[in-house]
Queue: 2 jobs
Job 1
Amino acid sequence: LAKTTQPISMDSYEGQEVNITCSHNNIATNDYITWYQQFPSQGPRFIIQGYKTKVTNEVASLFIPADRKSSTLSLPRVSLSDTAVYYCLVGEVSTGRRALTFGSGTRLQVQP
Amino acid sequence: DSGVTQTPKHLITATGQRVTLRCSPRSGDLSVYWYQQSLDQGLQFLIQYYNGEERAKGNILERFSAQQFPDLHSELNLSSLELGDSALYFCASVRDYEQYFGPGTRLTVT
């Protein structure tokens, strides 16, 4: 699986848009980019997955440039409940049938 | 609620002991994955089962073993426990392209 690099931590305030960027220079042709969210003492929760360009769902957007060497998770108008660790994963996980390799993630702290 | 259940929620035991963690995947899901998460660390993949058969192994110690039963629930057995085995242990099952994680079992070895 391609190695990913993301900031260790980020701080934001309620109502702001938060963008978390993940670098994955060695991404392979068949790799997808997936983001998970984890609250303390809970299992990770799938947020969004994409291959290229832009993907949007009810909770987030994922921006992937043409070279796919990075991706940005965008959380619109964060609230205190968005305080969590966010993991960027890259690999052939489109079917969900491979074990996931989690890095250290980005710890997002949302302040009131 | 992911639909994946794990028991017990908490487990406290002493070094050298053996424990069994249990996981029931979502109804209809055939795969079970086990992960270990030590304090403030990322998740480490341990082992995967699919319909009763071992499919992949990750960073699983020889003191650890697992199995998946005909009703698809899985058990992770940890023996000769050491202080460093204290961690959260998650299992996950698969539906479409998502892995659904259970609430985890917090193991504390004293």
Note: Chain B touches chain A through 28 residues (CB under 8 Å).
Job 2
Amino acid sequence: EAQVTQNPRYLITVTGKKLTVTCSQNMNHEYMSWYRQDPGLGLRQIYYSMNVEVTDKGDVPEGYKVSRKEKRNFPLILESPSPNQTSLYFCASSRGGGGEKLFFGSGTQLSVL
Amino acid sequence: AQSVTQLGSHVSVSEGALVLLRCNYSSSVPPYLFWYVQYPNQGLQLLLKYTTGATLVKGINGFEAEFKKSETSFHLTKPSAHMSDAAEYFCAVAEWANNLFFGTGTRLTVIP
């Protein structure tokens, strides 16, 4: 089954404790992206990747890191989480090119205390 | 620069009534336009998209949207609302590749 898998589904942590949210897709997609969803703000892009070893900042990259060492994986790293990073996070992937459908993961609800 | 405006963060309709969710965009080039739906506790799913060609686009579950370049709009409609349509709807625009910018969303409530 074609899917984007995020882990964990829920995460509670404390300020400053490094964490990683994993994202994997099994569709051989070139494009992958991370979004955060906050009430009243919709989805805002954090980082995206057009292919292996190619990443770029989205609208709200501060406090986040990503890597794309393999085509299927695109982890999101919070080196020193802060309470304002409490949010619902989504990973998404699609084929290369314009106008392609984005496939979304089920989301990761992160709470930073 | 791209931006998307969705008018109305909450819309309520009666079951069987017309659904109209509004979306306006700004883009310096002909854009790709999308509507996604999010059901509770789930990720987003594509409803429909406009890339090129016919300006009236039909999607899943009886939804459709019309690209009006002169009005920079891409409103979503459905002739008759069903209870299962209750969800949050997001309009999105991309000027290149798949780099989507999303609107702030419209929560649709369907009243029995």
Note: Chain B touches chain A at residues 6, 9, 32, 34, 36, 41-46, 49, 51, 90, 94, 96-105 (CB under 8 Å).
